[in-house]
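Researcher: Please predict.
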Amino acid sequence: MKNSIVLFIFFFAFHFGTSMHAQKISDGQTINVNGMSVTFSVLNKETVQTGGKSFDRYKVSASVKNNSEKSYTIRLSSYPQIVTNIGLVELDCINATGSKLTSKKIELKMKPQMINVTYSAYDKSGKFVSSTIPITGSYYFDTGDTISDDAIFIVPQGEKPDVSVRVLR
C-alpha cells in the first residue's frame, strides 16, 4: 500500500512537471519560447464520419523560427549513427482522437545536413570504380531558420484543436 502511494505521487509529480512547461496555442497565434517563435495555423476543416459518429477533421500547420543568436547543432561522429533527439518543439493536440491514422502531435525537428561521400571499391567484374552516396553529417537549426510541418487532427465534433507547445531543446 505504501509503495503504491509513493508511486502515485511520483507519477503525479512527473506529469505535473512535464505539463507545467507546456503553453497553450490557438489558431493563428505565435508564441515565443526560448528565443524561438512557434506559430500554429488551421488550414482546413471538414466533418467526417468514423464508427457512426461525427468528428471534425482539421488540417493544421506549425512552424518554428529561430530568433535567438544561438544555433543548434548535432554533429555526427560516425556513420551510420542513429540520432533520435533532433526535435526542437512539440505541438500536442490534447483532444485529438488519432483515428484513421491521423496525428496527435507535430514534432518540429532540426534540418539534416547532407554530405556527398565518394568511395572506391571493386565491382563484381573486378573493375575499380568510384561511387558517391549522400549521408547525413549533422543536424542544425541556425539563427533565422524556419522549420514547418503539416498534420491532420481529428477531434470530437464541435470542438477546436486544444494544442499545447512544449520545448524539447
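Model: The longest strand covers residues 36-50.
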